[in-house]
């Protein structure tokens, strides 16, 4: 009998899957930036014991039904809203994700995005590149201070707390809102728990790091933006669907907020004609929260280990649907 088959839905660093190859026959889609087409994925799933999936793959009933031998779906992301976890649980399939290894990297990106938006970095870079810099002026490309301002973090999980840690270095006042209180963040970082409304009303920087759930879907709508300060800067590094994008646009048009930094969008990837790209005060990134070479390699090793573990009957480090393992 041959080794179990694991299919990887995108080209990932080959050398990071060495350990998995001891236990499985591994095949991966040959493109790094072009997703596997559905037909190929469904055909590969047919023989797969494991699937290593990306946040852009829709892992639904159709795919799981096409994979009668599937035991593990290892998602290369901390978020797993692309997966029908309930459906996987019902079929006895382990779903795993990649928390911890990407925490610092994603916090770095979130804080960079905040700084880039506040200090108008992309606009200033383009200004120089386009030859517009003819004179120095006292208010040329003047942005907004970060130090000593109030940051409000919605979603105080690992990444939220790590962003808060960075904010302490900028002498910021830290507010947070979360499903549950975080006593360690309060004690160690001086963060103050507040209601969602109080957070959005008082913060200079409203930073969303909450996972996408039915509760957070479209949490940031026009009413929320209207409650924010006119000078507030909104940063989203979680999932696009937490924002009503039309409402964000209206809030920017009506100057309900000052600017937005967005790493994520409702329908990714967005094209150059996306309406939010017409604003100079919107900084848009292509969902690169955890995109450092070191971290993406570590995430790849981790998903490889998750598959190998399930294949040999060992519990993977991070299971989303624990009940499947307990049986
Ligand atoms: C994740 O892992 O869920 C992040 O969105 C990646 O940047």
Automatic annotation (TrEMBL):
Molecular function terms, GO-annotated: glyoxylate reductase (NADH) activity; glyoxylate reductase (NADPH) activity; hydroxypyruvate reductase [NAD(P)H] activity; NAD binding
Keyword NAD part of the UniProt annotation: yes
Domain D-isomer specific 2-hydroxyacid dehydrogenase NAD-binding stretches: 111-289
GO CC field: cytosol
Membrane recorded as keyword: no
Transmembrane segments: none
Record key words, sorted: NAD, Oxidoreductase
Broad enzyme group: oxidoreductase
Domain D-isomer specific 2-hydroxyacid dehydrogenase catalytic: 6-321
Enzyme Commission code(s) on record: 1.1.1.26
Family classification: Belongs to the D-isomer specific 2-hydroxyacid dehydrogenase family.
Protein name according to UniProt: Glyoxylate reductase
């Amino acid at each position: 009998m041959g080794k179990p088959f694991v299919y990887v839905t995108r080209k990932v660093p080959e050398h990071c899957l060495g350990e998995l190859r001891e236990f499985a026959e591994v095949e991966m889609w040959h493109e790094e930036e072009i997703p596997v087409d559905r037909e190929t994925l469904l055909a590969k799933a047919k023989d797969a014991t494991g699937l290593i999936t990306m946040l852009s793959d829709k892992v639904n009933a159709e795919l799981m039904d096409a994979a009668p031998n599937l035991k593990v779906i290892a998602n290369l992301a901390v978020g797993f809203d692309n997966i029908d976890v309930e459906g996987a649980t019902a079929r006895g399939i382990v779903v795993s994700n990649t928390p911890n290894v990407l925490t610092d990297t994603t916090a770095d990106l979130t804080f960079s995005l905040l700084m880039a938006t506040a200090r108008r970095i992309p606009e200033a870079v383009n200004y120089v590149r386009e030859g517009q810099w003819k004179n120095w002026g006292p208010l040329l490309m003047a942005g907004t201070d970060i130090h000593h301002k109030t940051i409000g973090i919605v979603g105080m999980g690992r990444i939220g707390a790590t962003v808060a840690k960075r904010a302490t270095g900028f002498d910021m006042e830290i507010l947070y809102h979360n499903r549950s209180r975080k006593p360690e963040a309060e004690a160690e970082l001086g963060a103050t728990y507040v209601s969602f409304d109080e957070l959005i009303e008082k913060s200079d920087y409203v930073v969303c790091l909450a996972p996408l759930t039915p509760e957070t879907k479209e949490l940031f709508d026009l009413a929320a933006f209207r409650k924010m300060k006119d000078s507030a800067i909104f940063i989203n590094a979680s999932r696009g669907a937490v924002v009503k994008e039309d409402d964000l646009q209206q809030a920017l048009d009506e100057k309900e907020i000052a600017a937005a930094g967005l790493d994520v969008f409702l329908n990714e990837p967005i094209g150059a004609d996306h309406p939010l790209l017409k604003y100079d005060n919107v900084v848009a990134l292509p969902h690169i929260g955890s995109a450092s070479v070191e971290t993406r390699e570590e995430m790849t090793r981790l998903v490889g280990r998750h598959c190998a573990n399930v294949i040999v009957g060992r519990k993977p480090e991070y299971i989303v649907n624990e009940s499947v393992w307990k049986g």
